[in-house]
Design a protein that fits this description.
single chain, 338 residues, alpha/beta, UDP-N-acetylmuramoyl-L-alanine:D-glutamate ligase, nine-stranded mixed sheet, four-stranded mixed sheet, 13 strands, globular
């Protein structure tokens, strides 16, 4: 199937996303001098913006590409939580599965972005990131509501995504119960895992760690292709995955699978980014496009190639920015359109 055909088939696919919803705040400004009080830049604030982050950014990417989303997560009983839910609902995303927990803050990342100017160019640089969050597991009453919100939706969706940022919204029991129910209905599950729950996703369809996360999971630093293949094989077999997609930044991606005879197959997909300005949100975009393509019944290599293109587009932007169908269509090589 061509990438254009895969792209055309994303419309209307229904994805359930379970994970940590995050509010991304940005403070934009200009730096023209150093403070006399300390050797730090002085930022003259020009504007402030807010965007969806974490599982909410995955959801926005899917909606941008014509998919439908049910989102399961938790926010605090605070102004940032209200703001985030309003943003989610304005995007046409079903937010009824989001629970409010008065005992925790809404996970919020505030990035301070400076624009520095020279005689000929202007560049953006992140000065600092401020995180407000709780990493404790949600309390039992909220957990039960999250569980039921998720399980009730499994039969009606085309694919399931766990977007796990280690913020306490995803428990082992939630993973096990959703996986068991998804198997009953034959639903593919894609996971963007972090270190804490990495080995709890045994038996899902596919996971999409970056190369650093993959190496940490098996306590092996990836420094060359031989090490990459060793790590990939270990994770693929220990988690009993159908596919493992390791994202590698400027080096693209590597997809690990086993063929019908049980032989390991590794496809290295070179990056599509022309110039990497900022990889913030790229992992969210990759898992969104990959899962949506699998929901549209693309094979894993087709899904990986399309998600690689999407990730490259996002790396060319500043901040956490979702990809659009038009951007993907423009980026598809002519050889892949027929």
């Amino acid at each position: 199937m061509s990438l254009k055909t895969v792209l055309d088939q994303l419309e209307g696919r229904h994805v359930l996303i379970i994970g940590d919803v995050i509010l991304d705040e940005y403070i934009w400004g200009d730096v023209n001098r150093i403070s006399p009080e300390a050797p730090v830049p002085v930022l003259e604030i020009a504007s402030e913006t807010a965007r969806t982050g974490g599982a909410a950014n995955v959801a926005q990417n899917i909606v941008n590409l014509g998919g439908r989303v049910d989102l399961i997560g938790v926010v605090g009983d605070d102004s940032n939580g209200k703001k985030l839910i309003q943003m989610i609902e304005r995007l046409g995303i079903d937010a009824s599965g989001i629970c409010i927990d008065a005992d925790r803050p809404t996970s919020t990342k505030t990035r301070v972005i400076a624009r520095t100017s020279s005689t000929s160019t202007s560049t953006h640089q992140q000065l600092v990131r401020l995180d407000r969050e709780s990493k404790a597991l949600v309390k039992s009453g909220i957990h039960e509501r999250l569980m039921q919100n998720a399980l009730n939706r499994v039969p009606d969706v085309d694919a399931i995504v766990f977007e796990d940022y280690d913020k306490g919204g995803v428990s082992n029991r939630l993973i096990d119960d959703v996986l068991r129910t998804a198997r009953q209905y034959g639903k593919p599950i894609v996971v963007d895992p972090k270190v804490e729950n990495f080995w709890n996703y045994k038996g899902v369809t596919s996971i999409t760690p970056n190369h650093k996360e993959a190496g940490l999971a098996v306590n092996q630093k990836i420094s060359d292709e031989e090490g990459l293949v060793s790590v990939g094989k270990d994770i693929l077999d220990r988690l009993e995955l159908e596919g493992l997609l390791i994202t590698r930044g400027e080096q693209g991606m590597s997809l690990f699978r086993r063929d019908r005879e049980g032989e390991l197959r590794v496809d290295h997909i070179p990056t599509q980014a022309q110039e990497v300005f900022d990889d913030t949100g790229a992992g969210d975009t990759v898992v969104a496009v990959y899962a949506l393509a699998l929901a549209a019944q693309a094979d894993m290599l087709e899904a990986a190639r399309l998600s690689n293109l999407a990730g490259g587009i996002v790396c060319g932007e500043v901040g956490c920015v979702p990809v659009s169908r038009e951007q993907l269509l423009q980026g598809i090589h002519p050889d892949n359109t027929e």
